[in-house]
């Protein structure tokens, strides 16, 4: 998704920039006294972009206001989608593995995530784990969430995760480092009765 979003961002920003440059440049040129082509929207320094007649031309048509409202609604929804997509954390699709022959290989990000999850869940006291890879293909970062059982020692769980799961993943993928952000939470449980 990050590649698609990056492409959409570039296209949208490029088109907006081009439109603003053309409109702003033409207004500046006409304002400075340049003679625009005959087909241009306005042609003198005192001319306005939309005159009174142009603004009121479609007022009495029944389809005009629903169309304007629908187009503006679609534009608002697209702008909201774009804004939300900017804040969504991007998941790494693949990791570049140095094979030593100069070519390299690509490892699916989801495969490495599942290996990290299974390694984390093998740690004593970890009931459930979730791992997401972020960052660049050549320098991934791991974000892990661990749900700890009531008897788990958080320090020991973190140490085991770093020494076992993360270290093995780093070595097997041939990475120089694999920084990780780990969030811990306790699993809710009922109080046990002591008799």
Low-pLDDT runs: none
Secondary-structure-based class equals alpha+beta
The CATH homologous superfamily of the largest domain is called: Cation efflux protein, cytoplasmic domain
Number of strands: 5
Explain how this protein is built.
The chain has helices at residues 2-31, 52-56, 64-87, 109-121, 154-173, and strands at 94-97, 105-108, 126-135, 140-148, 180-186. The chain has 195 residues and is an alpha+beta fold. The protein folds into 3 domains: 1-51, no CATH class; 58-88; 94-186, Alpha-Beta Plaits (2-Layer Sandwich), CATH 3.30.70.1350. It has a 3-stranded mixed beta sheet. Strand 4, helix 5 and strand 5 (180-186) form a beta-alpha-beta unit. It starts with a helix and ends in a 9-residue tail after the last strand. The model has no long low-confidence stretch (mean pLDDT 81).
Question: What's the short version?
Answer:
This protein is of the alpha+beta class. The protein has helices at 2-31, 52-56, 64-87, 109-121, 154-173; strands at 94-97, 105-108, 126-135, 140-148, 180-186.
Spell out the key features of this protein:
195 residues, two-stranded antiparallel sheet, Alpha-Beta Plaits, alpha+beta, elongated, 3-stranded mixed sheet
């Amino acid at each position: 998704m990050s590649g698609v979003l990056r492409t959409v961002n570039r296209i949208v920003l490029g088109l907006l920039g081009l439109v603003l440059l053309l409109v702003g440049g033409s207004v500046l040129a006409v304002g400075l006294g340049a003679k625009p082509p005959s087909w241009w929207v306005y042609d003198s320094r005192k001319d306005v972009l939309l005159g009174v007649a142009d603004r009121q031309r479609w007022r009495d048509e029944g389809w005009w206001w629903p169309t304007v409202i629908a187009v503006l609604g679609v534009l608002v929804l697209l702008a909201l989608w774009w804004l939300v997509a900017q804040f969504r954390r991007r998941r790494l699709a693949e990791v570049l593995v140095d094979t030593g022959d100069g070519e390299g290989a690509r490892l699916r990000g989801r495969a490495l995530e599942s290996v990290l999850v299974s390694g984390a869940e093998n740690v004593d006291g970890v009931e459930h784990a979730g791992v997401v890879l972020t960052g660049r293909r050549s320098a991934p970062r791991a974000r892990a969430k661990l749900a700890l059982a009531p008897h788990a020692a958080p320090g020991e769980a973190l140490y085991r995760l770093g020494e076992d799961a993360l270290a093995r993943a780093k070595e097997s993928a041939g990475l120089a480092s694999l920084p990780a952000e780990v969030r811990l939470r306790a699993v809710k449980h009922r109080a046990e009765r002591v008799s």
